[in-house]
Amino acid sequence: MNPATLLRSQRIFRALLRVLPFDFQTNYGHEMEGVFHEQEREIRERGGPMDFLKLWGETIAGIFRTAPSEHWEILKQDLAYGLRMMRKNVGFTVIGVLTLGLGIGANTAIFSVVHAVLLRPLPYPEGDRLVFIRQQAQKLGISDIAFSVHEIEDYRGQNQSLSGLVEYHTMSFILYGHGDPDRIRTAVVSANYFDLFKVQPLLGRAFLAEDDKLGAPAVLILSYEYWKNKFGADPGIVGKTFELNDRVHTVVGVLPPVPQYPVESDVYMPTSACPFRSGKAFIDNRDARLMRAFGRLKPGVTLSQARADLATIAGRLKSEYPKSYPDNMGYAAVSSPLQEELTHGARPTLLVLLAAAVFVLLIACANVANLTLARMSRRERELAVRTALGAGRSRLLRQLLTESFLMALVGGALGLVLAYSSLELLTEFAARLTPRAREINIDASVLGFTLLAALGTSIIFGTISAVFTRANLSSSLKEGSTGAGAGQSKNRVRSALIVSQVAFSFMLLIGAGLMLRSLIKMLRVDAGFVPQRVLAMRTTISFSKYAKQEQLVEVIKKILDRVQAEPGVISAAMSSSYPLDSETISVGPNSGSFKIQGRELAPGEAPPVGSYSLISPAYFRTLGIPLKEGREFTEADGGKGRIVAMINEAMKRRFWPNEDPIGRSISYDDGATWATIVGIAGDVREFGLDRPALPEIYIPHAQIAAPSTLSARTIADPRTMGEAIVRAVHEVDAQIAVTHVVTLEQARAESTTSPRVTASLLGIFGGLALVIAAAGIGGIMALAVSQRVREIGIRIALGAQPSKILGMILGQGLLLAALGVGIGLAGALAVTGLVKSLLFDVTPTDPVTFLGVALALVAAAILASYLPARRAAAIDPIEALRTE
Amino acid sequence: MSHHRETGHEEEQHPLTTAMFHVLLTLANEEMHGYAILKEVEKRTAGKVRLSAGTLYGIIKRLNGEGWIVESRKRPVAGLDDERRRYYGLTELGRRVAVAEARRLEELLETARSKKLFAKPEPA
User: Which chain B residues touch A62 with a CB distance below 8 Å?
Assistant: First the structure.
């Protein structure tokens, strides 16, 4: 064998040895090499190539057979030793486990949400191929226009990029025969809707093409939640019948738990079941838009190809039907991945919370590393003795890491418990941000994440403590227990850890502070109405029973008269929605363009756009919306009476900035009828306290269709009036479904839940960080004082005033805090852009917040250093010099 | 909480693997270095028990840890020796363990004999 081959085989053998524990290598590596060398030599002298192969095979197998048991032995020893140490230092263990548990728990909880909502693919087969399609009037700023039947058919028939296109719209039916009449949120969908989503019903079947034919027997499919909550997951539900409005419907299937978009529905019906959707006039009218559209990309087609395809069709429609798609509206058709639609509302909040949780964990790591370092200085002699007795350094490192991991593992288990117990609350919170919230759970990936977090954590804090312990080991035997040199360098490490904790705390607190400030501003916003003592409820009136507009107007008048006659009711009104209604917020404004009489649009100029609301006469009075000019509606308005409208101030500012709009006429049916503006109301924040009022057109309910909410202003607490008002409505017609009874104060509070929870979570994280950082400062100052007893004693003996000593220690604590704040400031300025989208009326660099947080941290630092400082000032010089 | 303490001889608590027993036997009469042990075991068992560097030193570490063998301080004359080599010898405890194991095997063998296990099966 030539020398090069020999060298190579030696090198390979040495590399193999690395599989074994370090101590084993040190102890036997040389000998093993020797043995292998001799085995090789023997074969070289009298053997063949096969013998070489055999030798290598046996050698590799032998090492790999020996290594696991050797590692396991060491792990067993280290674990036993670690457990003994944990039991011996209960205080340290408890604090460490608690800190890590909170850090890991926060991360596990937030990660379980992030994982379910943002990371996991949609729970539909090939869900990433599903797209949501919308029409837009880009020049009018309307990003989501519903589809008419013609449009659905055009896009379905002409596209080249989708393997299917289905429609969807919602309605409210009334369910009879199960207690009080109940409003059923119904989604009306194409027969192949579930095939497109590739959803297999849990029970029964999906819709068939026959179900969709006009005159087919009425069928419905229940959503999983409705089936579970209302029917106790009755396994025999398929085949049962429901009386909805004037028809009997047969249940043919139950859906599995899938996210529902754009809104949650109780039941699904085929399009033929909707009397509006199946009316001939509606079907023939290209401009009667009601439906949403979903598609599935054909295999191999990319999103941008589909977008181009839709744009081509939109262009074709534009030139074919210029009346429906005038140039000045900027007509377009766009598609976006369903995954994005379902999650974009949650993304910024979740990412901010995840970042905050990671900060908490980093702070926890720094804290435990600090505690470990403090404990190490007490264990230093033990470790030094073990080194002297021949324990390899890496063997000690390994043992320290095992101890760290043990603690992180226990912390991780605690964190898991914490995460698990917060899951329900978090799910409820996330449900306001995304329809995917119900998918949140702690599954194998989340468990894996927790384990990784624990492992990562233990590596971070274990390495920090081990490395700096190692650096000092050699000196500690020589120096004695209070060795100054090593102690100082370690204090520097500990100070650096404290500074980093303060910096991260600062950043967290800035996040919390900004959210809090923006929440306070939001709560102080004048929403434009008086929410106190108003009760609102959804009143679903059967469109089958009151098919004619006059009938509807009549029954509404009866209801309002009856409710108003109820003792304790000041006024009552009906409207299409009430301000800050969660359902209205999720659906969005009902925007449309209109014409202003006497104003011609320049070619290409966009027509004015407003959001429409239907109201009954006493609406403004009931909700406490101020009338700014003109008059309110009366019963003489609408219907066969005058055609009138009211607008809000935002509308006036936008379209009549220098004129009086009262007496002017507008048309929202392209000039067919003209409504005279009779009054101007104050602006109302309908769609969120953080969203300014849109230009709004109010139309008397008698003029168009059925408003669906009833509100009543009461003398006493409105909550005590609910039953009486519902009874009053039912006296007029017992078949009206009255649901979702809330006070406007509740609705207003509910509309701020999301920022409130975000602020609270960040607040909890920030508060935790503050406490940990303050405890860290207090701890290190106490240690510094105890290490410097002698020096301080001498200072006092030489005449230093106790107040000066006090100031000196406080100053040092303050210095740590100031350094941390400085670094945190830089960090915060770098990352606050992240929270920008969550803020209302507060800039990400809000000086008040920055100053407040800085002051809070400095105050906490002073407070934390005060005790050790006082102890230092009270040192008796004689005592101090004697004990040393 | 009550503590249950196992009683009995150390020899009985640690079952020996065949390979371990072979190493003990090899060191019964003289001190040897690793490679010699490996060769000797292989020769004596006619290649039926083959140790490699990894398995051998795993065994040596265990036997050493149990106090059954010990590293010898005596070394052969310088010059004849490879520096990397260490020599191992049986301790008194190790000898007792080996004897106990041999007895155990002997008893087993006796039992097998008394059951006429080695007798040729009767032709059918």
Answer: 51-56, 58
Give the residue-averaged pLDDT of A279-301.
Answer: 92
How many beta carbons lie within 10 A of that of residue A41, not counting itself? 12
The chain-wide mean pLDDT, for chain B, equals 81
Residue of A nearest to B36 (CA): A35
Indicate which of A17, A52, A66 best probes the interface with B, i.e. most B CBs within 10 Å of its own CB.
A66
Question: Residue A64: its chain B contacts at CB < 8 A?
Answer: 54
Query: Within this chain, do residues A367 and A275 fall inside the same structural domain, yes or no?
Result: no
Cβ pair A588, A612 in contact under 8 A:
no
How many CB atoms are closer than 10 A to CB A482? 13
- The A residues from 17 to 46 touching B (CB cutoff 8 Å) are 20, 24, 27-28, 30-36, 38-39
Residues A606, A681 share a domain: yes
Residue A566 has pLDDT above 70, yes or no: yes
**pLDDT, tens digit, for every residue of A97-151?**
998 999 999 999 999 999 999 999 999 999 999 999 999 999 888 888 899 999 9
Structural domain boundaries enclosing A826:
347-524+753-883
Tell me the average pLDDT across A669-675. 86
Report how many helices (DSSP H) and strands (DSSP E) chain B contains, helices first: 5, 3
Residue A728 and residue A730: Cα distance in Å, rounded?
A: 5
Is A34 within 8 Å of B82 when comparing Cβ atoms? yes
pLDDT higher than threshold 50 for residue A197: yes
Residue A119 is assigned to a structural domain of this protein:
no
Counting the structural domains of chain A, the total is 4
Residues A499 and A618 in one domain: no
Distance from CA of A95 to the nearest CA of B (A): 28
Contact B53 A39 (CB under 8 A): yes
Provide the CB-side half-sphere exposure for A531 (13 A, CA).
23
Per residue in A370-413, pLDDT (tens digit) is 888 877 777 777 777 777 776 666 777 788 888 888 999 999 99
User: Are both A571 and A680 inside the same structural domain?
Assistant: yes
Q: Are A222 and A269 in contact (CB under 8 A)?
A: no
Q: What angle do CA A704, A705, A710 make, to 5 degrees?
A: 120
Task: Compute and round to an integer the Cα radius of gyration of chain B.
Answer: 18
Spatial CA neighbour of A140 closest among A674, A610, A613: A610
The residues of B whose Cβ lies within 8 A of any Cβ of A are 33-35, 38, 50-58, 60-61, 82, 84-86
Residue of A nearest to B60 (CA): A28
A762 and A875 share a domain? yes
Residue A380 sits in the same domain as residue A491: yes
Q: Check whether residue A770 and residue A806 sit in a common domain.
A: yes
All structural domains of chain B: 14-114 (1.10.10.10)
Mean of the per-residue pLDDT values for chain A? 89
Prediction pTM value? 0.81
Domain end position, chosen among A312, A343, A374: A343
DSSP state of A355: H
Number of neighbouring beta carbons within 10 Å of residue A719: 15
Tens of pLDDT, residue by residue over A728-758, are 999 999 999 999 999 999 999 989 988 898 9
- Measured between CB atoms, does A132 come within 8 Å of chain B? no
Which residues from B are below 8 Å from A20, CB to CB?
54
Rounded CA separation A609/A596 (Å): 11
Confirm whether A85 is domain-assigned. no
- DSSP structure string for A757-789: HHHHHHHHHHHHHHHHHHHHHHHHHHHHHHHTH
DSSP H helices, A431-483, are 444-479
3-state secondary structure B34-89: HHHHHHHHHHHCCCCCCCCHHHHHHHHHHHHHHCCEEECCCCCCCCCCCCCCCEEE
Q: Are residues A313 and A365 in the same domain?
A: no
